[in-house]
Amino acid sequence: MGYINEIRALIGSRPLIVVGACIFVQDREKRLLLVRRSDNGLWGLPAGTMELGETIEECARRELLEETGLKALRLEFFHVFSGMDHFHTYPNGDQAYIVSTAFRATEYEGMACVNDHESHEVAFFQLTELPAELNPPTRPVLKRFIEHFGSL
Asked: Are 105 and 78 spatial neighbours (Cβ–Cβ below 8 Å)?
């Protein structure tokens, strides 16, 4: 998150428009992969912000690998999320209007595990049994995903 940290050093916690990606990964039983974030202890999708010169697809692949150890082999575009439902104040006070492109990893390899300092747990959940402790920006994204893919 070098680019965002550089901007934050200049402007502090004021609201930014932050572009990033999130990625949906389901196992063979159609359970959804979530990570428990280190910053607030809440569950969310593997996700993060773009770095300079990176494509949005590269961002999604990088974040999945960094946070879960999984390598996305094939991505499918799902949706772009933005607007007031995606305004978020982080535990450190930073504010952001998040513009997030969501993808599905329709093929991946590796074993899901905690792979960096941004999360401290990784687990698959049935869509009907998601944890109650969801990260606020994740809620509207999951809602849309379940509406679209919940019957798979």
From this structure: no
